[in-house]
């Protein structure tokens, strides 16, 4: 396995994407991970899904459930094409009462879930409605999106509980040691970026010397630790600017900066605009905030 992987950073709590390999020849060259949960739905054809050291062969009308911070990638079966829908969401996109569904599905269930024939049209309809809402940015998108996503999670959990186990085939693989070390460090940063995350603190946390972590992190991810921590923090700042009415100083403290001036400098350097200007420029597409959540 190629020891490199990439980290996907999204400044949205909910995201959905359609891909058709008949119309595009783009491929996922490296493993990647992200801070949100992923539901992969195969609409047509077949493909291979590599998840945390195992290979799963996925067929039409199967769901693939990827927990946050799990290394994965897709690849084509030789001579075959496929079409898929991918839904990514953060846990806090859902009301607290529904988050137990996420835990059961993504932490206690098999990653590949075949959909029974009797439920295929219903699952397809929910996902198509989600995609339509997301693409058209209808009024109350977040509220309706949460409702549809909750419906999808419930239906998926019912399937898992009825069937017991996935029937997807699997073949054991292994990760390179260095890649696994960095995956664990990336996961830690993604979960702890609001606290003191530095090379020295990572060295203490993972019982590795600083030179080893620094060199390997650059080798595997293509960036240094400081730049990655800043990227994660600014990505979260962008999300908070779009989805909340928090003040700049509140956002700075929430994401791990000691003062708003530091946030302003790093944000401007990375995005080319100030936090206030970013919020203003995107105000016309800012997702509605559900105060009752």
From TrEMBL:
GO terms for molecular function: DNA-binding transcription factor activity; sequence-specific DNA binding. Residues 183-281 form the HTH araC/xylS-type domain. Keywords: DNA-binding, Transcription, Transcription regulation. SMART domains: HTH_ARAC. It holds the Pfam family AraC_binding. The keyword DNA-binding applies. This is AraC-like ligand binding domain-containing protein.
